[in-house]
Amino acid sequence: MADPGALTLDDWSVSEWLGAPHQDFAVGDLAGRVVLAAAFQMLCPACVEKTVPQLRQAAATFPAGEVAVVGLHAVFEHHDAMTPVSLRAFLHEFRVTFPVAVDEPSSRGPVPVTMERFGMRGTPTVMLYDRRGVLRRQTFRHVSDLELGAQVAGLVLGDV
């Protein structure tokens, strides 16, 4: 697992963004806001049943000027089944309106670059970044709504 405070959003390696508000969208566009992100895969049951719906709810709940919600599609298995074309269809069918980054594939093995760099053990991995883009929490599991809401609120208020 990544050491909170040691990595930032700038350490993400993204091959493309889907559902972004403009074509040249980058992590720098998230500056000044608390960022709630989750690494997920389309074939991860917990991601599909819990994490993606939770991100949709968070995006609809928190003020966009205070909290940005983004996904990180981090494919470390079943690569042939989880292509960008499949991801676009998934995002459409599941009514995902927040930006989703596609983690850069690694030339060294099946685990993509950002997933490896951040020491993620699998999906879902929920990440919270402060307004400076510094990683404050990274959790390999689904995080309950109450726990996640408290963590986001703490960062918004500057308590954490």
From TrEMBL:
Record-linked Gene3D superfamilies: Glutaredoxin (3.40.30.10)
Signal peptide: none
PANTHER family the record matches: PROTEIN DIPZ, THIOL:DISULFIDE INTERCHANGE PROTEIN DSBE
Record-given protein name: TlpA family protein disulfide reductase
Organism listed in the record: Nocardioides cavernae
